[in-house]
Design brief:
single chain, mainly alpha, 4 helices, 0% strand
Length: 97
Amino acid sequence: MLEVLSDFIVFLGWIWTNTIAIFKALFLPVQYIYTFLQQFLASAFANPVPPEEIWVFNDEILSVFNSIPYFHILISAVVLGIIILMVIFIIKTFLRT
């Protein structure tokens, strides 16, 4: 009798665990939308962070970039090269059709 009661209790625990898992899976999209909207509205109405706080680098990092001669020219050349590659890709794509 105790074995049957034990098996029944284990079965009820299994049913309860799976029922909770099913409800969590059903409400997961609702929870995701709620969390997204909550964070979106909190960040939309928050005071903007000034750019000085975002782009603050310590002296060690600045010394690395300042030690590279003509670093701003190198960055401009890399960006120009990427733009040229993108233009070539777009032209090839349009000419293919």
